[in-house]
User: Fold this.
Amino acid sequence: MSIDLRQIVWMRSQWKRFRHILCMCTGIAWLVCCAGIVLLGHEDLPILLSMIFMLLIVTGLFLYLFWMTRRELKSLDRQAIELRAQAVRAEGARAG
Assistant:
């Protein structure tokens, strides 16, 4: 399967867009959880515990997905570098 440079650039931009949306959604979830924790008193202990649990789950999921996007972006960068190197080698072979 041959992937050209334009496809790699497109995939890389999609992963960056996903990472941006991920950061925004995580920030909103953290804001909701922290506001709920601050605003709730000790009277609503089950809801307070569920907010803390949700905050921990959101944080773990964010870290995992952020790590996966970073790994995928590095992989795409390596593929782009390899394609550029192959193009330079092909230019050198034709010129030489």
Remarks:
- The chain has two helices and no strands.
